[in-house]
Amino acid sequence: MGQTASESGEQVLIIGGGPAGSTSAMHLLERGFAPLLVESDTFPRFHIGESLTTECVDALNRLGLQEQLIALRAPRKQGVRIFAKHPENSFFVGAGDAWQVERARFDLMMLETAVARGATRVHGKVTHLEHDGQHWHVTISLNDGGIDHATTRFVIDGSGQNRFSLRKGLLGEATEGGYSRQVAFFSQFENIASKPEDAFDTLIFHRECHEWAWMIPLSETVMSVGLVVPVTTFKENKQPPDVFFDTHLMEFSASLVGRLTGARRVGKVRTISNYSYRVETYAKNGLFCVGDSHAFIDPIFSFGVEFAVCEAAYAAEAIAACREASDTASWRRHADRYMQVTSQGQRVIEDLLDYFWRHPWGFANMAHVRHREEFLEIFAGRIYETQPGEGLKRMRATLQGATAKAVGCGR
Ligand SMILES: Cc1cc2nc3c(=O)[nH]c(=O)nc-3n(C[C@H](O)[C@H](O)[C@H](O)COP(=O)(O)OP(=O)(O)OC[C@H]3O[C@@H](n4cnc5c(N)ncnc54)[C@H](O)[C@@H]3O)c2cc1C
What's the CA gap between 166 and 159, in Å, rounded? Predict the structure, then answer.
């Protein structure tokens, strides 16, 4: 494949142009590489995942994207408001500089910025990836019907829930996550009866483990609304997804129904199920998986885009370090460091979630009273290369003390 970007830089193949892929491209460009970004979809395209954390926005700002973010004219997120089954367990966690973004527009902005800064975009689908001991050989099925090939030392897999490398057997087996057997339904609504105190917050309504709903404002008039239930509940119900969604939302909880009464659904109902998993080894031989391509825990506290964006920076750092090293031991060390830092961040959120579902009262108390500052930091997404505070240690001790360290809600 001909090189058109940064002729002098070493080519890095990137699979996928979502937040993981475009952010990786921008970081690699800063380090003098020539990213070749292959995206199969035509942008703008719909994607779920609209609420960004403060750290995610800080990471984007560090890439110099402030103006592009402001130009999206998206709502500023003030915080996360949790409505529990028992009102005493409800609470609010403030956010710093954060946004609620319509992903079609956000992802397009990210991809266009990566290309404007020098990445080469290929309209096609990566279909084959193979390592010969030194290089990766890539086959791309182009959207115009052609086939192309590339040979590179470095590959970033940002293929999201498609999990390209995993499906191709390059990473071994995946472990099913604790929040796997649930299904999410979502759409957009207008005419929501927001309360003045809601501001532009993310609203989470929960009942039991695996049963929750969200509201995320995307503009003055449009709201993203979603519902999560166990897959079995949906299957037993035998209703079409749109009927199930509309009826179950209206029966969910008084605080949710109070806001939905009189609202109008203006989008189609989409679903995604069994989206929680993790892969043990997700960086090796110059291949780095970033974002959803190697792990996804659960969307309730909106960390997915942060993982993608922050991991991209660590992956670019590791690739740049490998470029300077000639021996395989150094490459392994840089890959291991990438996995160690990024999985440590994922573990913080996984433990936070497990504790949230198993000890809702204790969680609300910690978040609001006992370890307020620490929880603010975690909710903001300050989860990388930090020492665990007292609150996190306490949560972990409680989780480890429970009989059988079951994943997820511990059912
Ligand atoms: C119900 C639900 C709600 C969520 N809510 C939030 C939220 O509020 N906030 C938040 O931060 N996160 C949220 N998330 C998570 C968020 O959507 C993801 O974590 C995020 O999009 C991951 O980014 P990514 O770049 O890794 O993958 P993606 O955004 O999925 O991008 C992957 C891209 O790769 C392309 N691709 C795949 N395979 C190939 C191939 N072989 N060749 C070429 N291109 C390919 C795809 O077309 C796609 O564009 C939610 C997730 C779910 C399931």
Answer: 10
